[in-house]
Hints:
This protein is of the alpha/beta class. Helix content is about 50%, strand content about 15%. The chain folds into two domains: about 20-175 and about 185-190, Rossmann fold (3-Layer(aba) Sandwich); about 190-238, no CATH class. The chain has helices at about 1-15, 20-25, 45-50, 50-65, 75-85, 95-105, 155-170, 175-185, 190-205, 210-225, 230-235; strands at about 30-35, 35-40, 70, 110-115, 120-130, 135-140, 145-150.
Amino acid sequence: MKLMKMFAVAAVLALAVPSLTTAQGGSKPTVAVLYFGNSAIGAANAELQPLTKGIADLLIGELAVNPAIRVLERDQIQKVLEEQKLSTDGKTDAATAVRVGKLLGVHHMVTGTFVTNNKGRMKFTTRVFNVETSEIEFPNPASKDAVVDGKVDDFMELVNQLAVKLNAGMKLPDVPVRVGEARKEAAKKVPYEAIALYSKALAAKDAGNKTEAVTLFRKSLDKFPQFEKAQAELDKLK
């Protein structure tokens, strides 16, 4: 009788707890992007702090154009960080990154930092963890380009370049050629001013300042009316 009860409990638990495959989007590789660390120094550090969330969110969008993978939305990641009372300012160590990845049920956890200089250049440095093994999978000896840098004015193009390198570094399925080319061209059109305002709006939204967030999203759209992500976030708050 006791043995039968044990089997019954096991059966209930099996139904109640989703399998790892289900949690990770079926057979598709799943990816999450944590907020980037801010390595800027001096007054620039505080000024650029909102980019910790902005870069991650834009990178999520660029990676998500690959129909063969699943990329978690920023709101999902923000929720887990808040529930676990973890840092949301981009200062996340390796152990925490893997822990968050397991909570989210993903295969790949992307982390990174950014820094700028007084010559108007921006540099992104990234690292990817395999959540199942807790080991670094990118960069590796076969893919040396873990860094992307260029002019701040070409900010969105840098994010697009980073997404392409990460997709290759994680050995994910290729993005369809036409889709990749379209994203590359679209990235050239987004002005940095729109991205800076968008990033500030995300920070205001997460802080619960809805009115400020709405104002900033609208200002971002004023700078670039075709900014789909800003419009989508604004629609969420209406």
